[in-house]
Description:
The protein has 77 residues and is mostly beta strands.
Amino acid sequence: MFEFTLISNEAKIFSGQVEKVTIETERGPVEILSQHQPYMSRILKAITYVKEDGTSEDNPIVEGFIYTNGTTCYAVV
Length: 77
């Protein structure tokens, strides 16, 4: 589990513990897990995250950016 925050210009969409975050990038899908190496990328189509209760949330987006340092992850869409 790791801390994930999804925000837009208008509001905080989600903030909490997740099992994984999956994004669509220019080079294809990327899955971010706990202790992931530091990573930053542009998000092109969608972002999906699995919450600590096991439910998943899909968010179609136009574009955005994601950053993780291995213990926290931020997505700005």
